[in-house]
Amino acid sequence: MSEETSSVKYYSLAEIAVNDGTNGNGTWIIYKDNVYDVTAYLDDHPGGGDLITEWAGKDCTKAFDDFGHSGDAKKEMKTMKIGEVREEERKKEAEEERERQREGCY
Ligand code: HEM
């Protein structure tokens, strides 16, 4: 479905970045091109709010997966989805792979 006709809300990376929990803004995070509003969840996070606010307005995919969250955690995350990253601003898979390799190669 094209961006125009889909009911999914698309956000630019700049719009998402503004929601970094400062200046009275909410806290949004990106996980695998989906956008989540975790403002109300911070106090409930078993790992504490700070671990999430570190990624406020940014892509937490690697940090989230590196911890190895449970299926329940992923289900919980889904309930907070508010939209997706604009298609033209998504990372290409090849680029993500290169980043992973760089990070693993000290
Ligand atoms: C919407 C986002 C998130 C949700 C819904 C979520 C949910 C959860 C849940 C349910 C647990 C308990 C263990 C489990 O079920 O896996 C947990 C633990 C944990 N989470 Fe998250 N999490 C989120 C984001 C993050 C992020 C971005 C980080 C960054 C590193 C993180 C780090 C951790 C850590 C370290 C624990 C272990 C806490 C402990 O056992 O002391 N989480 N999370």
Order of helices and strands: EHEEHHHEH
Number of domains: 1
Beta-strand share of residues:
5-15%
Helical content (DSSP H or I, runs of 4+): 25-40%
Across the major sheet, the strand order is 1-4-3-2
In total, the number of strands is: 4
Approximate shape: globular
For the sheet with most strands, the description reads: 4 strands, mixed
| Unreliable parts | none
CATH class: Alpha Beta
CATH topology, by name, is Flavocytochrome B2, Chain A, domain 1
Structural class: alpha+beta
Architecture overview:
By secondary structure, the chain is an alpha+beta fold. It has a single domain (10-97), classed as Flavocytochrome B2, Chain A, domain 1, CATH 3.10.120.10. Helices cover 35% and strands 14% of the residues. The chain is built from five helices and four strands, in the order E-H-E-E-H-H-H-E-H. It has helices spanning 13-18, 49-53, 61-67, 71-78, 93-103; strands spanning 10-11, 28-31, 34-37, 81-85. A four-stranded mixed beta sheet has the order 1-4-3-2. A hairpin with a 2-residue loop joins strand 2 (28-31) and strand 3. The longest helix has 11 residues, at 93-103. It starts with 9 loop residues before the first strand and ends with a helix. The mean pLDDT is 91. Keywords: Electron transport, Endoplasmic reticulum, Heme, Iron, Membrane, Metal-binding, Microsome, Transmembrane, Transport. This is Cytochrome b5.
